[in-house]
Structure formats: structure tokens, C-alpha cells
Amino acid sequence: MSQSQNVEVLLRPAVELYTVAVCASAAFLCLAAPWSLALKPSWGVYSALAFVCFGAIRLKDAWVILRYRRNLRRLPRYGMQSRKVPVSPQRLFVGRGFRWEARHTQRLMQTYRPEFRQYVEPAYLYRLARRMEERLGFAPFPLSKLANVLAWDSVLNPVRPLPPVGGLPRLHGIEPHEVDVTLPLAERVGHTLVLGTTRVGKTRLAELFITQDIRRRVGGQHEVVIVFDPKGDADLLKRMYVEAKRAGRLGEFYVFHLGWPDISARYNAVGRFGRISEVASRIAGQLSGEGNSAAFREFAWRFVNIVARALVELGQRPDYLLIQRHVINIDNLFVEYAQHYFARHEPKAWEVIVQLEAKLNDKNIPRNMTGREKRVVALEQYLSQIRVYDPVLDGLRSAVRYDRTYFDKIVASLLPLLEKLTTGKIAQLLAPNYSDLADPRPIFDWMQIIRKRAVVYVGLDALSDAEVAAAVGNSMFADLVSVAGHIYKFGIDDGLPGGATGVKVPINVHADEFNELMGDEFIPMVNKGGGAGVQVTAYTQTLSDIEAKIGNRAKAGQVVGNFNNLFLLRVRETATAELLTKQLPQVEVYTTATMSGATDSSDPQGHTAFTSNTQDRVTRTSVAMIEPAHVVALPKGQCFALIEGGQLWKVRMPLPAHDPDEVLPRDLREMADKMRRRYGEADEWWGSEGREQETGDGENLEMSVDGLGEVGASEPNGEAS
Q: Is 705 helix (H, G, I), strand (E, B) or coil?
């Protein structure tokens, strides 16, 4: 027994309007001339009400059709001021949209059918207006004004142009009933991946997430927000400052920027560690480990570890400058540590060493020690005569016993890296002088940031020097992974008086263009960082960017596999689009077909010449829920979201509206202006209406570097001093 299947068809003429017109006419007659319908005046009123009610019902049905057809061509504008972004202690606001189901696939497939083109494609008058606008743009003065009239973006203009977002509006217009799309905060620990090509809204989505992270309070406490921005987005920096000020967090706002070291906070990537070997791992981890380079990488790790252990024993905090100095000339560190060791264990040893040094000349110096200082040679000879069991001293001794030219060769790959990190003013940022009290720039480390629930903007200036940016970013990631491991075991208050063990706070890490920063250090962060409260939100263009950076497809798959939430904006690579589409099930859609036929009669004596029949058939087909071509055709500012265990949502982000009170302090405003000129505008696909005010009252714009992170650097009203 066959069952009939109702097929939804919203792409059709709004025939309900005919009924509305008839009902309106009948109601008018019932009120104005009830006698024409053989009605009493009182019954005319009741009849008119009945016609009005029925007409209203049919008008509502017609409005559904008209609104659906309108949304397929032009979506209503959706904008929001940053101050009105909803902030919830339980959920993360993403935008407005709907959950994609099989009926939406059905509707989308109908829009591609030839008989429905007139309802989906722009009307003839619109296409004519665009052609005239294009031609009149080159016309003389009076006619060129007509082009401006045709391009007037107002509801009063019946042929106004579509928003400059490209793509297919039908992808979102197939569902006229939108709801707020949110992500439970408990899901963020599973990490979030945002993919999208250049200038389609990744930065806008990042601003939306970061705004909520800065302003959110959970249990009366703010959350930690760390933003890595390799390219340097001035609008993103501005947004973070404005939101930190709005939330009263200027005292915990840090700006670290390699491109502007004069006003940047300072950070020692190797100054804090749980195990001393982490210093060598963070530095040697930047070196290539492929092929023959692996052996040199291991040698570099060993010598950096030797230097770091010696520095710690001497009571010095390791940094890039000290490590570079002693890798280039390890003799001084060998002598300095020997003095420190013998002063505690054998005070009279130096008398013997001085005597040995006096007997040395060019003829009796061992060949492998040629080029070394005589005191180093004498010290090595003394240690060879006595038994000393100190691992640090033994390591330094093994280093100086290498032939000097051979030693320089095996650390040749390490020295260029250290040169990049210690050249110019960058050395002041990455190797800060802790004893210089006259320097107003704050110094921070990740444990301090987490304990203070601070907000950190990290600008790596990758467009100027990508290698230095990658090295610093990887070092910061490695340091953050180490801190996360410590928090996982002991909590953030470990070592503090009255500290509670196991206390964790949400650590929101936003990594824009994270493929430029990613190395082997990034994998444990997304793999195991969730246990310490680390919530990574990574932004990049394609999957190939990740694979190209890591150089290994298996590792790239390992990274992507640790992201539980996926936001996919417009992409140009099919493989990236298939990351979403291949995870979705097949759905069944229905198509209608009209079949007509005629059959000649075979009876020449009969009265019937032929028979005809017409059938409406409904066929069922299994198709993909969405195709990669749909992802490629997404308008700017829209995305598909795979969240909450594989639920597919279609989302559009709010356009930024003007906030009149958003101002920057003078130093940050100057830096932001230079960033715009140097790096170019950010993703301002929403048009000039979304640009926010850059300047304000000059009396409130003074701000010293102290206000970028020093505790107590802000006034009670939240403005920087």
C-alpha cells in the first residue's frame, strides 16, 4: 500500500494574495453596501469581520512565501554594538542561525531547479540597474550622479545593490526563523577550530569570542584571555583594550609586540620551568629534526642543557642572551662554575690550578684544547687528576674537551636561531633585565598571568620577520604547555600560602593564523591542555597550511583530530570543505515529476481514438546533507558550525555597529595606526558602517606603559593613569 508524501514547495507564486483581495473586497461590500449581498446592516458587520479574519489568515500564509523568496535574494541586516554582545556564564554566543536538517537540504536543492530560477536570481530591474550603474560610472558629471542614486543603499531604493559579502544568500535564507546560536562553555575545553579563507570574517568571529571571554565572570572571577596575533591586527588590539577597560581589567591588560618593543611588555620564554631540561627543549625544539639535522639538533639540546644547568647552579635566570653568550664562549662559564664549585668543596684547588697554568705553553697544550685559554686547559688537567663527581662540572668539562672548530660546527644550527632572538631591541623583550628598576615596561610569565586572571595580546610581527615570530610563538606555546602541566598536577596556587591544590581557571587561548606558530609544542597543548583548563581556539585558512607547517600528514591529522568544535567559513580548498561534509550523514530528499502520455486506440471500430493520462510522481533520493560547493559559496560573515557532538548549525555573525565611546590611549592609538599602515586593513568586509571611532577627547588619552599590565596602574574608575 503506497502512502502519499507531502512535498514542501515554498518557491511558487503567492496565490494566497488572490484570496486576500477577494476577502478585502467582500468585507468592504459587507460594510458599505450590505444590501448588495442581501444582508442586513448588522449581519453585514459580522460578515465583514469573518472575511477580515479569513483574509488575515491567508495574508499570513502569503507573507511566509514572500519572506522566504525575499530572504533567498537578500537577508535582513544583522548588526550589533559590542557593548550589547550577550555574555553568559554558561554559554558562548556565536550569532544567529538555525540547526541544519534534512528539510533544509530539500529546500536548497529546490533553489537549483530551472523552474524556480525566477524566485532565486535577481530580478530583471535589479540586473538592469547594475548594468546602468556600471556604465554611468564612466559618464560625465551629471550622469555620474545617477549612478550614485542607483547605488544608494536604502530601503527607499527598490534596486539597491546587495551587500558586498558575495556568496549565495540562499544558503541562509532557506530558513526564515532564526534563533541565537550558542556553544556550551563545557564544550570549549574540547577546543575549537575556525577555518576560512582570507577576509571572510575569521577576525570578526575572533573579536566576538574574545569580547565575551574578557567580560565573562564565573563564580565572581574573570577568565584568563591570551591572544596570539602573528600578523598584527590593529582592530583586534583595539577591541581587546576597549573590552578590558569596559570590564575594569586595565590593570591586568598586557601588550607584548615584537614590532614595537619600546612600549611592549617583556617576557622571558625560558626563565620559568618545572624541570631544567625544559629550557633546552624549548630552544632546540625550533631546530629542524628531519634527516641529518636530527643529530645536530640533539647536540644542540645537550649543550643548551649543560649551559642552563650551570646558570641555575650559579643562581642566574636563563635567558636567550646568556645562553647565546655561553654557547659562543663556553670557557668563561666553565671557569666561573669551577670557581663556584671549588669555593664550596676544595678552596685550595686554585693554588694547584694556577701552578699548572704557569707551566703551560704552546708545545705542551693538548691538540684538542688548542685555542682554549690556559686557565681552561689547566682546570681540565686538574680535574683529570682528581675524582670530582659533579654532573654540571662534568658536562662543562666534556664540552670544552671538544676541538673548538668541531664544537662550532655541531652548534652551527643553534647560533642562527639565537641570533634571531637576541638582535636589536628584541633582546630587551626576550631577555629582560630584572634588576633594572628604571625600565617601566612590565615583565610577565604565564603563571603570573594565570594567577592574576590577566588579558594578554601577543603581536609577533610575522609580516616583518616570520622566522623570529615562529620561534617566539613556539617558545611561548612550549612555556604555556609546561605551565599547564604544572597546573594539572598541583593547581594554580601551588607554593602560595593557603593555596588550594587542584584549583583551575579557564585559560582561553586564541591563536590567529596558528599554522604560522605551530610546531611540535602545539600538539600536547590541544591533546592534554584541557585537563588544566586550557581552551584553545585556533584560526587558519586551510588544512594544507597545517600540514605544510608541520611537514607530516599524520601529525596534521593528529592536531585536527583534537578539535571537537568546528566553524567553517568560506574556503577555497575542497579538502578543507570535506573536513565538514564527510562527517555529515546522508539524507533523503523528495523530488516531484509530472509525466504525461497518450496511447492510440487499436480498435478501428471503436469510438475512442486515443487515451491520455497525467501522473505526478514523487521520488526519493539519498544525497549529502551539504556539498563542498556550498561551503565554497558561503557569503562573508557566515559559517557552518559543527558543535555539541556533531550537530550542524548554519550561523551568521553580527555586523559591528558604531560605538561612540570607544577610545584608545595615545601610545596604543599610535601603534594601532602604524599597524594599519604597515599591515593593511583587517577583515572589514562589513563596510564602512562597521568602523568604530578611533579618536576621542584628548584629556583621557594619556597612558604610560605602566598601565599595560602593572597592578595598581589604573584608577578606580577604570581609566589608566
A: helix
What's 433-496 look like in SS3?
A: CCCCCCCCCCEECHHHHHHHCCEEEEECCCCCCHHHHHHHHHHHHHHHHHHHHHHHHHCCCCCC
* Residue 51 belongs to domain spanning: 16-73
**Average pLDDT over every residue of 479-506:** 79
Q: Looking at residue 694, what DSSP letter applies?
A: -
Q: Using CA atoms, how far apart are residues 103 and 250, in angstroms rounded to an integer?
A: 48
For 530-566, what is each residue's pLDDT tens digit?
A: 888 899 999 999 988 888 888 778 888 888 888 999 9
Based on the domain organization, do 511 and 370 belong to the same domain?
Answer: no
DSSP string, 629-668: HHHHTPPTTEEEEEETTTEEEEEEPPEEPP-TT----HHH
Examine the domain organization and report whether 474 and 420 are in the same domain.
no
Q: Where are the alpha helices (DSSP H) in 517-626?
A: 522-528, 543-550, 553-560, 574-581
Q: Mean of the pLDDT values across residues 627-635? A: 94
Question: pLDDT tier at 3 (50, 70, 90 boundaries)?
Answer: low
What is the total count of domains within the chain?
3
Do residues 514 and 549 lie in contact, with contact meaning Cβ atoms separated by under 8 Å? Answer: no
Q: Which residue has the cell 524566485?
A: 119
| Environment class of 478 (CB within 10 Å of its CB; exposed 0-12, middle 13-18, buried 19+) | buried
